[in-house]
């Protein structure tokens, strides 16, 4: 299976591509708030995924050293999601709320798609 750091590197590449698409959508369509909301949500979602990667490393180290397992940072990731939604609620003239929430979930959609692609590529002969 792919390790979490490799998955995060792929996530960052996908995020940059998505941000470029959002910039084009923001500049050339009549829905700039929707694309701005997706971009903000995707940035916060990728930040949440980065927090998860860091916490999983700490978790793995503590388990391998026989220490008590540390928290996986759920409160911090939850707070980050609340911050993204708070930005969208506070500035509705710039960011669309629903698209911000959708943007928060995009890294997890990328993760799901990556796992499916990896499984299909490595299970061709089975």
Automatic annotation (TrEMBL):
Keywords: Cell membrane, Membrane, Transmembrane, Transmembrane helix
Subcellular location: Cell membrane
Organism: Lysinibacillus halotolerans
Transmembrane segments: 35-53, 74-95, 101-120
Keyword Zinc-finger on entry: no
Record's GO cellular component terms: plasma membrane
Topology class, membrane: Multi-pass membrane protein
PANTHER family (UniProt xref): ATP SYNTHASE PROTEIN I (PTHR40035:SF1)
Keyword Transmembrane helix: yes
Family annotation (Pfam families): ATP-synt_I
Highest taxon above the source species: Bacteria
Protein name: ATP synthase subunit I
């Amino acid at each position: 299976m792919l390790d979490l750091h490799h998955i995060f590197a792929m996530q960052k590449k996908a995020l940059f591509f998505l941000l470029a698409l959002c910039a084009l959508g923001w500049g050339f369509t009549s829905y700039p708030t929707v694309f701005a909301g997706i971009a903000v949500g995707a940035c916060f979602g990728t930040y949440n995924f980065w927090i998860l990667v860091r916490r999983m490393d700490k978790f793995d180290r503590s388990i391998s050293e026989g220490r008590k397992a540390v928290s996986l940072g759920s409160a911090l990731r939850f707070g980050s999601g609340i911050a993204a939604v708070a930005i969208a609620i506070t500035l509705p003239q710039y960011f669309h709320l629903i698209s911000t929430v959708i943007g928060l979930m995009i890294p997890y959609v990328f993760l799901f798609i990556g796992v499916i692609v990896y499984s299909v590529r490595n299970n061709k002969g089975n």
